[in-house]
Amino acid sequence: MDKKKLKYIQSGFTLIELIAAVVIMGILAMVAVKPKIVDYTALSSLSSGSQMIKADLRRTRSDAMQKQIPQMIVFDIAQPFYTFFEKDTSANIWVHTKTGYAMPSSVKVAATTIVDNKISFDIYGKPYEGDPETAITVTRSITLSALDTEKNIQILPETGYVF
């Protein structure tokens, strides 16, 4: 008789109920975390694209000073890449040297404050903009965007320092 009473007193959850509860909690956790993962990926891509453009601007400036030949980068807002040119001083024309590296897929150049989206560096590393080239007199910027986030790259006049 004691066993019969004990049998009815025992209560708890069945294995199926526990599994169902864990699955529901997993789905809720996934829905809550997924947007944060997407934001982190976009921020990572934006940071990567920004570092890539900064490095290319610095390298272009450095190439101009080392080769003693003016160098230029042209940004195309509609395309996910940018193009490099070198000045043929004997013919006074810009020669296409290579197409820039493609930026991460979610990153694009949203805007620039550079005239004609062209920035060149003379043999002293001084930045110029536009066509014909005009010396930069104020800080210029390149704005990158990914989803709802933006990042600016600054180019200082006179020195061409990129940050």
Helix and strand topology:
Blueprint (H helix, E strand, L loop, with lengths): L1 H8 L5 H53 L3 E5 L6 E7 L4 E7 L8 E5 L5 E4 L5 E3 L4 E2 L4 E7 L2 E7 L8
Antiparallel strand pairs: 1-2, 1-5, 2-3, 4-8, 5-6, 6-7, 8-9
Quantity of strands, as a count: 9
Unreliable spans are none
Biggest β-sheet: count, sense, barrel?
6 strands, antiparallel
Instruction: Tell me the CATH architecture.
Output: 3-Layer(bab) Sandwich
Order of helices and strands: HHEEEEEEEEE
Question: Which topology does CATH recognise?
Answer: minor pseudopilin epsh fold
Helix amount: 25-40%
User: Considering the protein shown, what is the CATH homologous superfamily?
Assistant: minor pseudopilin epsh domain
What can you see in these coordinates?
There is one protein chain. The protein is an alpha+beta fold. The protein has one domain: minor pseudopilin epsh fold. It contains two helices and nine strands; from the N terminus they run H-H-E-E-E-E-E-E-E-E-E. The chain has helices spanning 2-9, 15-67; strands spanning 71-75, 82-88, 93-99, 108-112, 118-121, 127-129, 134-135, 140-146, 149-155. The protein has a six-stranded antiparallel sheet with strand order 3-2-1-5-6-7, with helices on one face. Strands 4-8-9 form a three-stranded antiparallel sheet, with helices on one face. It starts with a helix and ends in an 8-residue tail after the last strand. The model has no long low-confidence stretch (mean pLDDT 87).
